[in-house]
Write a structure and sequence with these properties.
Layout: H1 2-10, H2 13-52, H3 79-98, H4 106-116, H5 124-138, H6 146-163, H7 168-186, H8 190-199, H9 212-229, H10 248-278, H11 286-300, H12 309-316, H13 322-341, H14 349-370, H15 379-394, H16 397-408, H17 414-426, H18 453-458, H19 461-464, E1 474-475, H20 480-488, E2 494-498, E3 504-509, H21 510-518, H22 522-525, H23 531-534, H24 548-558, E4 562-566, E5 572-577, H25 578-601
Parallel strand pairs: 1-2
Antiparallel strand pairs: 2-3, 4-5
Amino acid sequence: MRALQDFLHAIQFRLLGKWLFLGGAVGIVAGLGAVLFHWLLGVISHWALGQVAGVVMPVPAGEGGGPEVFQFSVAHRWLLLVIPTIGGLISGFLIYTFAPEAEGHGTDAVIEAFHRRGGLIRPIVPIIKVIASAITIGTGGSAGREGPIAQIGAGFGSVLARVLRLPVRDRRILTIAGVGGGIGAIFRAPLGGALFSVEVLYSRPDFESDAVVPSIISAIFAYSIFGLVYSFTPIFSTHPYRFSVVELPFFGLLGLVLVPFGFVYVRVFYGVRDLFRAWQAPNHIKPMVGGLLLGLILMAFPYVMGTSYGWLQLALLGKLTLGLLIGIALLKILATALTIGSGGSGGVFAPSLVIGAMLGGAFGVVMQHLFPALIHDSTPFALVGMGSFFAAVAKVPLSTLVMVAEMTGNYDLLVPMTLSMSLAYLFSGRWSIYESQVPSRVDSPAHQGEFLTDILEDILVKDAAELPVFVPHFPQEMPIQEALRRAAETRFHCFPVVDKKGNLRGFLYADDLRSILFSGEMGTLSPILIVGDIAQERVPTLKPTDNLQKALSEFIKTGYEELPVVDEQGKCIGVLSRRDLMSAYDRELLRRRRLVEEEEARPVPTRPGAKRRIL
């Protein structure tokens, strides 16, 4: 019995039971919500587009699709102008009358709730989100399913935490677990959905580690319920893929090619959103106008209506022409921006997958035409592009890698997909389709209280950073092309800029160099552009004797990844990175915990008058 008690204590049985119950409860509701939404979307889509407009779209293999089918009556094309407009009108009325938080893509709203609202989500929000999204997508709107499903699970997690009077930290965790359950169910990707929920919160490589286990539990329950009602079959079917080593450079090149398209996608999406927000008109009618503009596109090019999953399936099987691949990719960007940016309701995950698959498929067709001896099959590029594009625009490389494999049931391309995703993610910069993301935990208001002031105040910069260390100095008159070459040869991201006398004049950040590189101005400005033109003159500096509390404040204020460290004479002697700060904090926190554990493990003194020292 004693051994059993020690075992249960070792595995923290109470904590495990708590999250098994709470995560399971959230997963059950998320799974039922996914079933309800999938059914409701099917009913509305079948009636509005199938019965009224006479449109029959191809369906992915995992959702009952067979031989590709597409029916579109040219005589009734005017209905594709009317139906999205009516759908936008109804959706706008529901959203802005009952739950304005339900507008746009719901995942971003959940991220916002986690970071800045203590995980609080009004119970009515997921209800309105489900109905409005089903109407938006079911009437032809270009949007995805993950937004409403994420808000269903997250909303119930938030409500459950309030009913049980759980701490704010637990409420945040349950909110994220709800996202993992919903995503894992609707996309039949339980592990990918769980990882997505803890990775999507941050734009840098960081995770909400405390929520991993609850999210996995929630995703398992939700996936099981959804699979029992519909199917456990992956959504998309693919051919068995085989790749050779000589094809790897082409997959790497694909990752780089997708970066500018991702940038355009994000800029168009939020550009349209900002235009609609600036328009002085009632919010209730804006989704209707967005539906009207979308209808104009659908009348001429109906392939971008709804989720477009059927066309994605055909791209994965190599059954689309090059023109159709490019057309769907480009017009899907505009259609999604008009649907969601106008205030409509839906997710951005599905459109991102479609855009990436089409661009990847088009790239594969072109490369196969140019290098027929090296590339024998263009379809693997569609699957790799599908994941790489979303990894770049959403900053979720790891979870996307797993989700794409689960959604297709294909693990043959993990190596080229990892290469392509990594390059797309690394070169994608700071822009993201989820604007509520923060760079890392240190930037999240949800974690500000965890970085205990007394700990950070006790750690000095010289104890956290490698000092002194040589940081390459860039002369003011150095050409930008030379600066790019030298920056690529070092591990630093912040470089001192000096004049001819060696006096410090500012600092140059690698991100500024990248922005010039991808702005399209390199070709025209590179002969005349020098380091002094883009150097930052007023960069906050740290001294070795400053504490990390000051450093944390400067990181939050500036948003920089590195800050220069200078000596008393103002000479740069190194840099302090966010990673250095986090590592120093973790080391000190671990040291203090060990001291406490050692103190608690000491036997209680039995000498008369003896007192046990408390740390």
